[in-house]
């Protein structure tokens, strides 16, 4: 997702365009990887020294709720990335060393649903973790 598209989506939902939101989106632009919230805070504080961890988290979760960012947990810590431009339902391989991702264009839920007859599945998340070719 491009930064202007993300800002337009926020505007359409009634959120103001702020320098802080612009800077947060800039951090994610051109990154094909998940970034830890603490690393976002460090980078963010270079331009906004007084910003609190709560402000960072509040904006990260706002952007996630509006499907501008995707979130996952790596090593017991929340990581975020811009939502990918891949259209439709998909999943990711996530490198545990560098955080880069690769889209997986199929969904294993068809097999899982066969084993859950009678269960009402509301949602799911499927991620594969390991080392990418560059980190192997």
What does this structure look like?
- This is Transcriptional repressor.
- Belongs to the Fur family.
- One of its GO terms (molecular function) is zinc ion binding.
- Its cofactor is Zn(2+); Mn(2+); Fe(2+).
- It is found in: Cytoplasm.
- Strands 1-3-2 form a 3-stranded antiparallel sheet. Strands 5-4-6 form a 3-stranded mixed sheet, with no helix packed on it.
- It has 2 domains: 3-82, Winged helix-like DNA-binding domain superfamily/Winged helix DNA-binding domain (Arc Repressor Mutant, subunit A, Orthogonal Bundle), CATH 1.10.10.10; 91-130, Ferric-uptake regulator, C-terminal dimerisarion domain (Dna Ligase, domain 1, 2-Layer Sandwich), CATH 3.30.1490.190.
- The protein has 5 helices and 6 strands, in the order ααβααββββαβ.
- With 136 residues, it is an alpha+beta fold.
- The model has no long low-confidence stretch (mean pLDDT 87).
- The chain is 37% helix and 20% strand.
- The longest helix is centred in the middle third of the chain and has 13 residues, at 53-65.
- The radius of gyration is 17 Å and the shape is globular.
- α2 packs across α3 (37-47).
């Amino acid at each position: 997702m491009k930064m202007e598209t993300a800002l337009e989506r926020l505007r359409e939902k009634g959120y103001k365009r702020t320098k802080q939101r612009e800077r947060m989106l800039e951090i994610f632009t051109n990154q094909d990887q998940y970034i830890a919230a603490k690393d976002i805070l460090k980078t963010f504080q270079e331009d906004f020294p007084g910003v609190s961890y709560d402000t960072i988290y509040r904006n990260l979760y706002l952007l996630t709720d509006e499907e501008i960012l995707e979130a996952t947990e790596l090593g017991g810590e929340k990581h975020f990335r811009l939502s990918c431009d891949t259209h439709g339902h998909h999943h990711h391989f996530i490198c545990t060393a560098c955080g880069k991702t690769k889209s997986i264009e199929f969904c294993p839920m068809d097999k899982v649903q066969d084993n859950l007859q009678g269960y009402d599945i509301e949602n799911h998340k499927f991620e594969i973790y390991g080392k990418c070719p560059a980190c192997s």
